[in-house]
Amino acid sequence: MIKTDVDGARQFIDDEEYTKTYEMAENAFRQVEQASGPGNNWLGWRRILKEPNDAELERIERHAAEIRKNADIFIICGIGGSYTGAKAIIESLTSGFEGSGLEILYAGHHMGGRYLHDLMEYLKSPREDGEPKRVYLNVISKSGSTLETALAFRTIRAWMHEEYGDEAKNRIVATTGESGGVLNNIIEEEGYAKYVIPGDIGGRFSVLTPVGLLPVAVAGIDIQTLYYGAVAEYELTESDPGKILEYATIRYILHKNGYALDVIGSFEPEMMGFAAWTQQLLGESEGKEGKGLFPATASYSTDLHSIGQMIQQGQRNMLETLFVIEKPISDLKITSMSDNTDELGYLEGKTFHEINHSAQEGTVQAHLEGGVPVIRVILEKLNAQQIGRFIYFYELMTAVYVYMLDVNPFNQPGVENYKQAMYRLLGKKD
Ligand code: PA5
After folding, report:
1. 3-state SS string for the chain
2. pLDDT by residue (tens digit) across 28-60?
3. Ligand 1 atom closest to Cα of 202?
4. Which of 11, 15, 108, 276 is the most buried (most CB within 10 A)?
5. Atom of ligand 1 nearest to the CA of 79
6. Shortest-distance Cα residue to atom 12 of ligand 1
7. What is the per-residue pLDDT for 429?
8. How far is the CA of 175 from the centre of ligand 1 (A)?
9. Which of the residues 350, 381, 419, 428 is marked catalytic?
10. Is 33 marked active-site?
11. pLDDT digit string (tens) for 231-280?
């Protein structure tokens, strides 16, 4: 179960207003449950947990094991909902110091020429033993036409075909919509392995489809446990959505009362990928029709030495969301020393987790005193099961809360505006 601590936000909210608004949250939850709200043909992120597709999970696991056995580098090529979730899971559940031999890299998530140039140089350079690097590529794009992803894919796959010849076909995997789109034409022509993103699931709700599951499995994470963690949270919240409704109610009231920003962060660096995932999930879902809380992110305690000043004493228009891990996976005791020249002797015997926890408690106290409502979302432990639960918890909370704003959570019409202007400047023909 995902736990929350909302005491630090409730103190900013009047009881009568809370009770009245909670009814709105119940109605919004019913809209999700009965598929009666706007965008109700985009609720597949619930369907896949109600009816898990074990055959697909197994196919992904088998394929991932084969890639892990043969690859030096696995490139995730996608943007927005097509990569943020996988990146968040991988960063939360792997330390980066495993030295497993398989390197996960990203492409197609921006149009920086220098980055892609340097990435290509790196791919072309030999391994330490002088052998060429064995590169695998997963292009992920539901529409199959997103420019950032398409350009990186063109660059990398052209090189892979040149480098590996026919073998390139076995090293390129495409994850896209069932049919239509340029990417489907390429898949058909080249014969790349394909995974389908269901038509009723939008990008930012797609992490528990092959969009996220294949890269995560390639990273060595147990996707069965992750997936069934989400299923467990789905089942729990169907019968007892109380925590979700409470959270959505508080967020809605703060928004209505003029709050403009939600600073989403954690004292656990491993959770910062999820701060970015939540930023996208909430931001693209609620930021419409002149509404929405701007989701900013902050990594603590690092950012207490920068925007912490603003959170404490800047404009009083922000709330704060903290992702908390109760029990650390691993920890470190403060080193004992015979002398106390660094004056840190008073911390001997404590662990970093304990000190970090005190930093968190102190920060919450200070921010509450500074007039910032604080919501804590708590995972018992950082493991695949809890992360699966966390993902569904936020997907459902987002849908309920955005329905309360009377907004369709599942579209992103504003994203088209920059694309049209960019394509005009680039001279794209319709
Ligand atoms: O949530 C969304 O729908 C978006 O963020 C998309 O995931 C993003 O724009 C990438 O789109 P596509 O997968 O079609 O390349």
Report:
1. CCEEECHHHHCCCCHHHHHHHHHHHHHHHHHHHCCCCCCCCCCHHHHHHHCCCHHHHHHHHHHHHHHHHHCCEEEEECCHHHCHHHHHHHHHHCCCCCCCCCEEEEECCCCCHHHHHHHHHHHHCCCCCCCCCCEEEEEEECCCCCHHHHHHHHHHHHHHHHHHHHHHHHHEEEEEECCCHHHHHHHHHHCCEEEEECCCCCHHHCCCCHHHHHHHHHCCCCHHHHHHHHHHHHHHHHHCCHHHHHHHHHHHHHHHCCCCEEEEEECCHHHHHHHHHHHHHHHHHHCCCCCCCEEEEEECCHHHHCCHHHHHHCCCCEEEEEEEEEECCCCCECCCCCCCCCCCHHHCCCEHHHHHHHHHHHHHHHHHHCCCCEEEEEEEECCHHHHHHHHHHHHHHHHHHHHHCCCCCCCCCCHHHHHHHHHHHHCCCC
2. 999 999 999 999 999 999 999 999 999 999 999
3. 3
4. 108
5. 10
6. 141
7. 84
8. 12
9. 419
10. no
11. 999 999 999 999 999 999 999 999 999 999 999 999 999 999 999 999 99
Residue 131 known to be catalytic:
no
Which residue out of 139, 143, 145 has the highest number of ligand 1 atoms within 8 Å of its CB and is therefore the one to mutate? 143
Homologous superfamily of domain range 3-36+230-410 = Glucose-6-phosphate isomerase like protein; domain 1 (3.40.50.10490)
Q: Is the CB of 210 under 6 A from ligand 1?
A: no
Q: Residue 284 C-alpha to ligand 1 middle, in angstroms?
A: 10
For domain 48-221, give the CATH number: 3.40.50.10490
Q: What are the residue ranges of CATH 3.40.50.10490 in the chain? A: 3-36+230-410, 48-221
Spot the catalytic one: 284, 286, 320, 395: 284
